[in-house]
Amino acid sequence: MAKKIRVAVIYGGKSGEHEVSQVSAASVIRHLDPKRFEPIPVSVDKEGKWNVGDTQLLEGAPRSLPVFADRPEVFLPPYEVRRAEDAIGPGTTLMTIGEGGGAYNIDVVFPVIHGTNGEDGTIQGLFELAGIPYVGCGVLSSAVGMDKDVAKRLARDAGIPVVPYICLKGGSYQGSEEKLRERVGRELGFPVFVKPSNAGSSVGVHKVTEASALKAAIDDSFRFDTKVLIEKAINAREIELSALESLDPKSPPRISIAGEITPTHEFYSYEAKYVDENGAKLKIPADLTDAQMKQAQDLARDVFVALECEGMARVDLFLDKKNGVFYLNEINTIPGFTHISMYPKLWEASGLSYRDLLTELIDLAIARFERKKGLVRDFSEI
Hints:
The protein is an alpha+beta fold. It folds into three domains: about 5-135, Rossmann fold; about 145-160 and about 235-370, D-amino Acid Aminotransferase, Chain A, domain 1; about 165-230, Dna Ligase, domain 1 (2-Layer Sandwich), CATH 3.30.1490. It contains ten helices and 17 strands. The strands form four sheets. Strands 12, 13, 14, 15, 16 and 17 form a six-stranded antiparallel beta sheet that branches. A four-stranded mixed beta sheet has the order 3-2-1-7. Strands 8-11-9-10 form a four-stranded antiparallel beta sheet, covered by helices on one side. A hairpin with a 5-residue loop joins strand 5 and strand 6 (about 105). It is globular, with a radius of gyration of 21 Å. The two termini are about 40 Å apart. The relative contact order is 0.13. The model is unreliable at about 80-90 (pLDDT under 50).
């Protein structure tokens, strides 16, 4: 009987999306094909401590995975990496200390840490240094996708429409609040959205309808990031699509059908997404004409390619109700994987089951690792 591929599902993290990650990870583990994969849950607490869990503690399919504070602490590569004799494929060793020491041999990592330190290229860099195959985008596209300002600039250079915005860097507007209010009124007009450039799940996002409320919104957004965007608010529909790298490197990425989110709150806030069960209505497929559906899919594919994404991403678009133009809102390189998350739901509606989606993502991770392993890194080999 073939040995199962050991998948380290890493979740939690030092992020405002810590709790969302716990729910996503539980869903991923529930849906992994038990005939092919053996999941190893690894939690990261809010102080950054890594602990390896025990799948026996997950019996009963909990909605949210716990942070294993009393479990062995993980001692991460690249400090000690070696070939695991019983590993499948690339096979590295994820060392642990505490409670008997020991080692957990893994074949691939499935990071499900949303936001800071998980979706921004930092953890991907660790996996690259350690020589561990991992699911999802690489260092560059993760960092770019997380930074809304940089992502919008690259998209704009590729001819992809973006909503007009102003970017502020930490403290740069201090002492010139009046000039900023005048600039916002002149260039964007009110209302506007104020948001951290590097955050997700609508953390720190505010809708500002008048100039007098601008400073408070900016100050709060700066609590979550050192860069803040002030973006023109348009009367738009929120359209989302799921992108998936093709298993054939010569083929373009696949794009799901489009879905639509209609918030019951003023906008699609953190509360609407994760706190209020009735915070939004999801419609799959979105009520679009055939031409609009194709246009949205083509645009999502262009975004995925322009930002050099790998593995997966969810592309969020605005559809302006006034002029019918699609704009890039943002891209999520580690989208939600909860039972209500759009990324897996859109693929299920497009004919790819949750289980098969996870299998493809893991296969893509291992295939990318093997391709990169063949690159020349030593001048003596030239």
